[in-house]
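Much of the work behind modern protein science is quiet bookkeeping, done one molecule at a time. The protein below has been through that process, and both of its lines are reproduced in full.
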Amino acid sequence: MTLEAILTNMDQLEKLHRSLLRIANDKTNRIKQNDISALDQLLKDEQAHLAAILQTDNAREQAVIRFFTEQGRPVPLKPSISDVLELTQEPDHTRLKEAKDRLLQAIHELKWQNDLNQKLTYQSLQFVNLSLDAVRPRTDSVNYTKKEIQGNAKSSDLTSFDSHA
């Protein structure tokens, strides 16, 4: 029963990560289209997904703790699916490993997409800054400064008088 709860949580985590990946793909399109209002809504959806992922992951961790307790084994400090895999036999071992691999693949794809979105956002900000710099008036001085008037000459050189000239 506990192993089924772990598998159910793993499947739910995979679904949530795949859904988050769809949001990340939509964010990429919205960033490219410069659609800020739609991007704002996607960020809100993303926050809701992250809260659900945290809740489901906590449920998975509790199921893993129950698994260890039912097995009469000491519970690891940070119980993981890898710890459970060490104790399971076939066919449960294969089912759990496949669920873990699917989840890791979804997380990897999501990480890649988020990295792309971060780079696109950074490029957009660079373009905005470049555009602002092109439009913004320059504050260059039109007058000579004291340093420019004096140049690199030392003050003692300026006060010396060459009487032989």
